[in-house]
Amino acid sequence: MRIKLTSIMVDDQDKGLRFYTEILGFKKKHDIPVGEYRWITVTSPEGPDEVELAPEPNANAAGKAFQEAMFSQGIPIAAFEVSDIAGEFARLTARGVAFTRQPAPAGPVTIAVFADTCGNLIQLYQPNTR
């Protein structure tokens, strides 16, 4: 058993797809109409055949309440590993990404947190080398 797909709720699938592809740099893998919504997945260009991320509509009231509670409490809903957190911070800041936490040491990693414009906080982390 292994993880191949995970979802993240977004308030608008088009906006989510634009943010995760045009701003973060992920690549669109699937975009299939499914009734009122779409089955969309994106992947990392560094591992296109690894884990897919699906920006799911937050149309469910319980899901939307969870998303809003996590955001208001400052809790990231997902974490993405990077090899150069300072470089990613600079790149994303230049693209207008709003960080709620600048890169800072946190035990065995350095972390930063940003808002994805779709209702979520996302954590970046870089393992510290010794």
CATH-level-2 architecture? Roll
CATH homologous superfamily descriptor? 2,3-Dihydroxybiphenyl 1,2-Dioxygenase, domain 1
Number of helices: 3
How many structural domains are formed by the residues? 1
Q: Quick one: overall form?
A: globular
Biggest sheet overview:
4 strands, mixed
Helix content: 25-40%
Number of strands: 8
At CATH level 3, the topology is 2,3-Dihydroxybiphenyl 1,2-Dioxygenase, domain 1
Mean pLDDT: 95
- Weakly predicted, low-confidence segments: none
Instruction: Spell out the helices and strands N to C.
Output: EHEEEHEHEEE
User: What structural class do you assign from the helix and strand content?
Assistant: alpha/beta
Task: Assess the beta-strand content as a share of residues.
Answer: 35-45%
Widest β-sheet, arrangement of strands: 1-4-3-2
Overview of this protein structure:
This protein has one domain: 2,3-Dihydroxybiphenyl 1,2-Dioxygenase, domain 1 (Roll), CATH 3.10.180.10. By secondary structure, the chain is α/β, with parallel strands linked by helices. The longest helix is centred in the middle third of the chain and has 12 residues, at 61-72. It has helices at 13-23, 61-72, 85-94; strands spanning 5-10, 27-34, 37-43, 52-57, 78-81, 99-106, 109-115, 121-127. 25% of the residues lie in helices and 41% in strands. The protein has three helices and eight strands. The strands form two sheets. Strands 1-4-3-2 form a four-stranded mixed beta sheet. A four-stranded mixed beta sheet has the order 5-8-7-6.
